[in-house]
Amino acid sequence: MSVYEYLPRELARLDVQRKAAGLDRGRVRERVRLAQEHEEQSRSEPTGPTTLGRLAIAVWHCLEWERIAHVMAEQQMPVYEPGQDGRVARWEEIRLQRLSSHAAEAGQTGGEDAAVARERVYRIVAQQNGGTHSGALAVTAHLMASSISDAAWRASVIWGRRDGLYERGGYQITRIDQILPEAGELF
Fold first, then answer.
1. How many CB atoms lie under 10 A from the CB of residue 63?
2. What is the CA radius of gyration of the chain?
3. Alpha carbon distances (Å) from 124 to 56, 65, 103
4. Tens digit of each residue's pLDDT (9 = 90 or more) over 163-174
5. With pLDDT > 90 as the criterion, what percentage of the chain qualifies?
6. Backbone angles phi, psi at 131, to 5 degrees
């Protein structure tokens, strides 16, 4: 049984907390405004068959920026320090409890021990075959995977089967980007 080290929402929350560390209230308010604009833009875009949508990630980011701005105002923090934010420590406790309960569950069911999966969120873009012109339909999906190659493999398994998106529509993967956490960053 695999247990996710971090869930997508936790990855988004940690991403914002890391970016907010050391910012003053004015810069955090600006990031709140930008996150709200990004959320609105994501709401206006067409939706497709995705596991994790751009909108969900934008909402998670926006909620965390707004929460941090509120905590800073409430506690009169001149700059944001995750160590002074009581919810950060509480969420880490909850995450560790989730991991240990899943590991205990695996032992009770007689299965093998729970393996901790260190997965990230990837954005996969597929383009119609022969569709290099600007009007060609592109499809974007978000998946959790351990690497870019794993994300490509999972996308092809999910949508590449007979009557799947890639088969039926003649799509091929054109781009894969790590979006949570940002590429090269580890939590």
1. 16
2. 19
3. 16, 26, 31
4. 555 555 567 788
5. 38
6. -100, 60
